[in-house]
Design brief:
By secondary structure, this protein is α+β, with helices and mostly antiparallel strands. The protein is built from four helices and four strands. The chain is elongated.
Length: 100
């Protein structure tokens, strides 16, 4: 006879945002690729429910590529943010909005 799985979520996980250790059942899975439904070959990180609620849940399909394009070793945070702002403007504003 098979055992019940009532204790499967009893292990504790650490929230990657705040560092609190919480029961797995009190946490949410986080997939940095933005697709937690494709599970094959992945190890998930976890967020406590409070930190999960604070996340932006918008799609981020092109975000990693954009960050890699503007990243350069040794640049300041200010320079990185300026490059990010310019890259987003260039990629996503319509041609009519660019002249404003």
């Amino acid at each position: 006879m098979w055992r019940s799985r009532t204790n499967r979520d009893r292990k504790r996980v650490v929230c990657i945002a705040c560092g609190d250790a919480v029961l797995r059942s009190a946490a949410r899975e986080y997939d940095k690729e933005g697709n937690r439904w494709e599970r094959h070959g992945k190890r998930f990180e976890h967020l406590c429910k409070s930190c999960y609620r604070g996340l932006c849940h918008q799609p981020r399909e092109e975000l990693e590529g954009l960050l890699i394009d503007i990243e350069e070793h040794g640049i300041t945070n200010e320079e990185f943010l300026l490059r990010y702002f310019d890259a987003v403007k260039e990629r996503y504003e319509s041609p009519g909005e660019r002249g404003r």
